[in-house]
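Lab notebook: predicted structure, single chain.

Context: the supervisor wants predicted structures on file for every construct in the current expression panel, including those that have not yet been purified. This is the next one on the list. No modifications to the sequence; it matches the entry in the shared construct table.
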Amino acid sequence: MYYTLYNPDNFQQARVASLTAVAALLSDLWILIAIVYISIAIDFYLGYSLSRKVKRENPASITSGKLESAKWWHTIIKARDASLVIGVLYLFDLFIIRSGNFYLSRLGAGFIIGAELLSMIENLAYLYRWARFFRKYVKNKIEKHVNINIDEIL
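Prediction complete. Output recorded below exactly as produced.
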């Protein structure tokens, strides 16, 4: 008797074997992806906290001050895309470059975490008093790119 996927038992075995193979291949990436997820979650929390603070201090502001499902889904999609980028970079490093040393996946995770860190700094600059030294950086960045005086908004 030969192996066929048309038999439900064989199909189940093939599916489990495929998932196990993919999990084994990507098992070394879980720590990088977990660190990226943590940084995205912290950035989401700080952004939500800043939105609440702005709404509390200035009720006429544009922000709703609530947890909005569209922003939540944006965060979930960002986390999904980040893990896809890290996984593809790892596969490229493993099969194309053939080093298997995680250099590209670490570099990709570093860029993603760096972008999240800048966003965290921007949120902290207006959220807490001890982070006021970040305000000059954020103010210059916003005024340069958006042409808005940030002191009029906050």
